[in-house]
Amino acid sequence: xxxxxxxxxxxxxxxxxxxxxxxxxxxxxxxxxxxxxxxxxxxxxxxxxxxxxxxxxxxxxxxxxxxxxxxxxxxxxxxxxxxxxxxxxxxxxxxxxxxxxxxxxxxxxxxxxxxxxxxxxxxxxxxxxxxxxxxxxxxxxxxxxxxxxxxxxxxxxxxxxxxxxxxxxxxxxxxxxxxxxxxxxxxxxxxxxxxxxxxxxxxxxxxxxxxxxxxxxxxxxxxxxxxxxxxxxxxxxxxxxxxxxxxxxxxxxxxxxxxxxxxxxxxxxxxxxxxxxxxxx
Length: 281
Ligand code: KIV
Prior knowledge:
The protein is 39% helix and 13% strand.
């Protein structure tokens, strides 16, 4: 149990109202025990990102995430969360092809998993899906700039919006998403000046990842923050813990104890004595 006092659950209107008042802290998370800790620590938005494919399943990109898998992880996170707003990330091809299918898939995150909202990648080109999901009263978070589901079109995980034309496109996408009714927009890997401009231009919060300090909030990936990603360390990541060392040292200590016979001890073992049965009259 945490020592933190019980706090009221946060909501989508709280996120919208935070713009200009306080910065918003958001992390990805994929499982119940981690979600409980982040929630107790005060993280305000928990995103069950399709990055689970890379961080947990070891894939090279997010494209293989499925609806069933995302709903299952989202459910685990939502069950463990008392205060934060839990958002389910809609996987590749679950919303792009058909707005009706997009609504059904988005609805699963709320009905089956207990999320409060969904996140989709893309701007004006996915507006039909965004509008359909919003028309079903399902809150939508947008995501523009570097959109990992467009990896092959973009030619890799690269900073977006460096040229005037592409910056203008991203600004137009942000405005279109806000006008459609998205309650927040993730800006991934764009120059900080562009993020500042968009943040000033749209009435809903921007959540930056590799988008500089001027966004209304910041989002990072759990495994990066906790020091569980070893190979890749993007420039925008700040590591707050080194769980790689903690876990490797703990596992190493277990190996030594097993080999030396130091584990288990007498206290960690059962005796053969049966508990006494008491007669009940
Ligand atoms: O899936 C994810 O982790 C994300 C964040 C990078 C915003 O979409």
